[in-house]
Amino acid sequence: MKALVLLSLLLPTAFASIVENEVDYEHDGTALEGFHAYDDAVEGERPGVLIVHQWTGLTDYEKSRARQLAGMGYNVFALDIYGKGIRPQPPESGQYAGKYKGDRELFRGRLMAGLEVLRNDERTARGKIAAIGYCFGGTGVLELARAGADIAGVVSFHGGLGAAEGMEATAGGVKARVLVCHGAADPHVPAEEVAAFQDEMHVADADWQFIAYADAVHAFTQKMAGDDPSKGAAYQETADRRSWAHMKLFFSEIFE
Is the pLDDT of residue 75 over 70? Predict the structure, then answer.
């Protein structure tokens, strides 16, 4: 019996098949470095998932999510908005995020560049691509939707919801289905911003869902945010678990 138990403990490590690589690419002359993960036990094409990072750039957090998704059978690419080697910490990270929020054309260009890396990978099923993002990245995936990116869906986890003036979604212009996973107590996204986003989606006649998690503040999926919600950003296990489950259900619908 002990030998059987030992074997069962060793199996996940012994037969692990997740392949991961750093990927160099560029946008408009800027060198970028993303992260690719997939399960080499899966044969042929499979749905692709693009990950857009939070305000400190592409970190171990996004890479861990990429590995999770690869283990679920997806072809995953975590893109790089800021540039190779640029991984700012607060308060500098706020300046970097603000640069792209203030220049949505540049932001969209970087997002589309990452999307093309995933789309052009031989493992990606062309008609089955989704994008997910966290905080700054949650804002990013909504920009992909507003820009009319030809993908199946986007999932925003505790992202900013506001559109740039003149760059709101237009009627019929949102091709992707949209899922927003929002902290109901997020002080960084006021009620007026939530209402404006929902009105925008109505006007665009988009296929969208908005789920708010009770008592969750900003960054509720990220343990590195700490556990003190009074600071406005904190991990909440319940919201993290539920939002991941809602994402998986969403994927089962858009990839059917």
Answer: yes
